[in-house]
Amino acid sequence: xxxxxxxxxxxxxxxxxxxxxxxxxxxxxxxxxxxxxxxxxxxxxxxxxxxxxxxxxxxxxxxxxxxxxxxxxxxxxxxxxxxxxxxxxxxxxxxxxxxxxxxxxxxxxxxxxxxxxxxxxxxxxxxxxxxxxxxxxxxxxxxxxxxxxxxxxxxxxxxxxxxxxxxxxxxxxxxxxxxxxxxxxxxxxxxxxxxxxxxxxxxxxxxxxxxxxxxxxxxxxxxxxxxxxxxxxxxxxxxxxxxxxxxxxxxxxxxxxxxxxxxxxxxxxxxxxxxxxxxxxxxxxxxxxxxxxxxxxxxxxxxxxxxxxxxxxxxxxxxxxxxxxxxxxxxxxxxxxxxxxxxxxxxx
Amino acid sequence: xxxxxxxxxxxxxxxxxxxxxxxxxxxxxxxxxxxxxxxxxxxxxxxxxxxxxxxxxxxxxxxxxxxxxxxxxxxxxxxxxxxxxxxxxxxxxxxxxxxxxxxxxxxxxxxxxxxxxxxxxxxxxxxxxxxxxxxxxxxxxxxxxxxxxxxxxxxxxxxxxxxxxxxxxxxxxxxxxxxxxxxxxxxxxxxxxxxxxxxxxxxxxxxxxxxxxxxxxxxxxxxxxxxxxxxxxxxxxxxxxxxxxxxxxxxxxxxxxxxxxxxxxxxxxxxxxxxxxxx
Amino acid sequence: xxxxxxxxxxxxxxxxxxxxxxxxxxxxxxxxxxxxxxxxxxxxxxxxxxxxxxxxxxxxxxxxxxxxxxxxxxxxxxxxxxxxxxxxxxxxxxxxxxxxxxxxxxxxxxxxxxxxxxxxxxxxxxxxxxxxxxxxxxxxxxxxxxxxxxxxxxxxxxxxxxxxxxxxxxxxxxxxxxxxxxxxxxxxxxxxxxxxxxxxxxxxxxxxxxxxxxxxxxxxxxxxxxxxxxxxxxxxxxxxxxxxxxxxxxxxxxxxxxxxxxxxxxxxxxxxxxxxxxxxxxxxxxxxxxxxxxxxxxxxxxxxxxxxxxxxxxxxxxxxxxxxxxxxxxxxxxxxxxxxxxxxxxxxxxxxxxxxxxxxxxxxxxxxxxxxxxxxxxxxxx
Lengths: 348, 279, 382
Prior knowledge:
C: Butyryl-Coa Dehydrogenase, subunit A, domain 1; Butyryl-CoA Dehydrogenase, subunit A, domain 2; four-stranded mixed beta sheet; four-stranded antiparallel beta sheet
C-alpha cells in the first residue's frame, strides 16, 4: 500500500532515508521521454547489491500522475516538492532544491537522465555538492567495494571509460536515454510518497534567467535520432541534385534523411541533417548509407544502428566495413534502382 | 566595451589519431591537437557579438604547453588575447576541478568580464559540464545550449531548443552561456589573422603559483572521479558484401532482407510473393 | 637548425588543410571534369586572404613568410592542384613583381585589388615561338606620347581566363640585346585586351588557362614596372619566386597521391589481407615518403634563403626540379598501387597523375632548371 506523509524541508531524515539511490524525476515530454523509468529500473537492480532503497525525486506542480507512474515502475520512495511556483522547468530553482535535499539525505547514488535539461542541471548539482559526475553513461554496475562503476563513452563512442567516484557522495551520473529497459507498469507496486514542503520563499534563489517564452516544438532533428529508418548520404552521391533522391527514399520508407559533414558544408542538405560528431547520433532499425566513406566522426554516430546497409563504389571504405550488408555500387545509381523497386512494391 | 571570455579546450584530432584496431588503444600522445569543435562554435558566437558590438575577447584554455596553439588559432580568428593555464599539477582534472580552476583564473585575470562563453560538449571526454559548473563557481546567471543571442544594453536575450521546447530567455550581464553546435558555424582561419596573431604574441602563460591557487585543489588528485579503465568496445558483424549488377543487387536485398526492411518501415513490401516467384 | 615545424607553420597547415578539404574537396573532381573555375569557393578564399599571401599588409595582404606560403600552396594543391596553381601564380608572378619593383604609386594603384582577389593576377611570357627561350618573344610595346601601345599574343597563360591584371612581357627595344624587354601591367578592361578560348588541357583543368590577345592596347607610362628594359631582370626574379610556388604545388600533388595510396593500401584486400601488408607495397610507400620529405626540405631551404634576403635562384631551381619530377614519379606509383581503380576517374589519383606532369614543364621546364643549377655549379668551380 502506498503511504503518503508530509514533512517540512527542515525535518531531518531518518537513517533509513540515507544512503539510498536517487533518480531525478524528469517528466518533461512524458510519455515519450521514459528515461526516468529506465533509471528506476536499473537503480532497483543496483540496489539489490547495496541494500539501498530506490527513490525518485520530483519537483513541479500537479505531479500525482508522475508520482504514481514512478511507483508503478519500481520507485520505493518518491520525494515530491509540489508547488505552483515550480510549475515550469527551471534550472536554478531545481538545482537549489536538489542540492539542498541531497545535502541532507546524503543519497549514495544520484542518477539523472541525459536530456538537455539533465545535462545542464546535473553538473550544477554536482558542483554544489562538490562531488563527481560522469556524463552520458551507457552502463552502470556496482563493484565489490559497493562503488558505482559508470561506463561513459569517449571519442564519439570509439572508446568506453569505466569511472568511479570513490570518496565523494553522492556518486552522480547522467545516463543516456534508452540505455536501460524500464520495468513493466505494475499497479500493485507500492511505495511511500514523501511530500517535502518548499523552503520559505526567502530561502529560494532569485531567478537570474527570465523565461520569456517556452513553446513545445517537436523538432525534426529529434525525429532523426528516433527514426526507425534513416537514409544517410555522403559526398559519394555526386551532387546536390542527386542527393535529393535520398529525401525521396526517406519519404518512401517513412524515414529521415541524414548527411555527413562535407555534405552539410557543401549545403546539399541542412545542418539539422548532420549525423556525426557535431550533429546527431542515430540508432535506427535500418540505416541506409549512400556514398559515405566513413570518417570516424560519422561511423561513431551510426554504430548503434541495428542494421546497416551501405552502398559505396569503394568496397574498402570504412563505412562498408561496419555495415551488415555492403553493396559495391555507385551510390546514386543504386539509390535510383532502390527507389524504383520500392515504388513498385508499395504500389499494390 | 563589453568584455567577453571564451573558454576553449584542445582535444586530439580524432580523425588523425594513430589507432591500433587490434588492441583498441589510442596513441593519444601522438595526436595533433585542435580546438574542440563545440568550443569553436562558442568562439564564433563571441566573434559575431564582436562584429555587432564593441567587444574585447579573451580566450582561456587549460592544458599542456602545446595547447597554446589553440589560443593562436582563436586570436587568428578574431579574439584579442589568450591565457594558457599550464602546470603539470593541473593535469588530469575532472570537470569539477577544471571549472574551479577556470573560475579562479577569470576572477583574478578578468574580474570585469561581462559574458563567459563555453562550448556545450567536448569531443574527447564527451562531457558538457564545465560550462554549467563554471557558472556555479562564479555564482552568475548561466544558460546552456544557446543557439542565438541578441544583446540590448546589459540584457542578453537568448534562444535555444532544449528537449523539444523552443525557449526565449533573458539574463542581465554578467552571465555565462554554453553555445550549441547547430548555429554559429565557425569561420575559417584567415591567413592575415594568423600572421597577425603570431606577430602580436598576446598570450599569457600562467601556472598554479601565479594563479595563487592551492596546489592541493587542482589536478587529478583533487578530482572526485577516477578513471578505472579505458577500452574499445568490441563489435561483431556479419558484413555481407554484394557485388554485381545494380538491379540484381536490389532484388537480392529484398529477397534476403525484405522482412527486416518491411518491419522497420512498417509496410508490406511483398517480399514473400517475390520469394515465391523466385522458387 | 630546427627541423620541427613551428606552431605557426603547423597552424597554417591545419587551417589551409581544413579549408581545402571542406571547400575544394567536394568539388575538385567536378571542376577538373568540367574545366570550371569554382567562383563560389574562390569568393571564400578572397575573404580569407589567400590572394594576398605575400603582399604587404598596408595594401591589404597577409605578408606571411615563405615557408607559410609554400605550406598554403601545398595544402591547396594536395586537394586541387588547379586552384593551387591559380593562387601561386597570382601571388608569386602576378603580384610579387609589383611588390618588388613597383613604385609606391603603382603599389597603391594595383596591390589592393590583387590582395583582395578582386583582380586575379597573371604573368604573360610564353608565346607561340617563345617558351624556355624568352628571346623569341614577339609581343612589342611601342612608346608614344604618354605611354605604350602593346601588340601581340600570349599563349598558355595560367589564370588567363579569369585574370583582372596581367603582367605582360613585351619587347621595347629591338636593338639592345640585354635591355630588349620590359614588363607592363595591363588590366582586363583595357581596350584591345581580349581572352582566347580556355585550353583543353590534360591536367590543371580547373585553372582557366588561355591565350591573351593584345591589339593596340594602350597603357600609360605608369603601367611600366621597373625601368624600361628591365624585363629580363624582372622576369627572372619572378620565375625564381614562381618556382618556390610550383615546387610547393608539385609537393602538394605528391602528398595528396601519397596520402590516398596509404589509405587505399590499408583498405584494399587481396589474398585476404590488406595490400599494405605486402613488402612490395611497403617499399613503394617508404620510397614515396622519403622522396616527399627530401623535396620538402629542399623547398624549405629555398624559402628560408628567400626570406633571409639571400640569393635563392639555384635553391629554388633545385626544389622545383626535384619536387616536380618526384610528383610525376609518385603520382604514377600511386596509380600503380590503386591498380585499375587508379586508372579510373572514380579515384583522385587519376587526376593527380594528370596534374603532376605539367609541373615539370611550366615555370621553367626541368631542362631549364638543370641549366640554371649547372650554371651555378660551374660558376662556383671556376
